[in-house]
Amino acid sequence: MNYYVYILRCNNNHFYVGCTNNLKERMDKHKRGKVQATSNLLPLKLIFYCCFLDKYLAFKFEKYLKSGSGRAFLNKHLV
Q1: Residue 44's domain is classified under what CATH number?
Q2: Sign of CA pseudo-dihedral 53, 56, 59, 60
Q3: Mean pLDDT by 10 residues, the chain (79 residues)
Q4: Are 25 and 50 in contact (CB under 8 A)?
Q5: Which residues contact residue 56 at a Cβ distance below 8 angstroms, ignoring those fewer than 6 apart?
Q6: With the C-alpha atoms ordered 32, 40, 35, 20, is the resulting torsion angle positive or negative?
Q7: Which H or E element spans position 41?
Q8: Please, are residues 21 and 1 in contact by the beta-carbon 8 Å criterion?
Q9: How many domains, in total, are found in the chain?
Q10: 19 near 7, Cβ under 8 Å?
């Protein structure tokens, strides 16, 4: 099974980082306002995603992107 780490740009120009095993379904939930963390930040734009074969590596990368150094990496290389 594949796992995806993704980055959304919210309407306030902040970024949301998430991880899922079904990117299409997760994006549909975001766009319909069914994800509490982003429901008041619509519209959203998917600006980056990457695929992992190992879910633990995916969750580790998501956690990294949410850290201070990970945010710096995100801003410099991914967005």
Answers
A1: 3.40.1440.10
A2: negative
A3: 97 96 98 96 96 98 97 91
A4: no
A5: none
A6: positive
A7: none
A8: yes
A9: 1
A10: no
Q: What is the pLDDT of residue 74?
A: 92
Among 23, 43, 48, 21, which residue's Cα sits nearest to residue 32?
43
CB 4, CB 52: distance < 8 Å: yes
Q: Which two tokens stand for residue 45?
A: 């734009």
Q: What whole-number distance in Å separates Cα of residue 47 and Cα of residue 27?
A: 12
**Residue 21 identity (one-letter amino acid):** N
This prediction has a pTM of 0.95
Cα–Cα distance measured from residue 48 to residue 23, given in angstroms and rounded to the nearest whole number: 11
- Nearest partner of 4 among 57, 74, 70, judged by Cα: 57
Q: Which residue has the tokens 């980055």?
A: 7
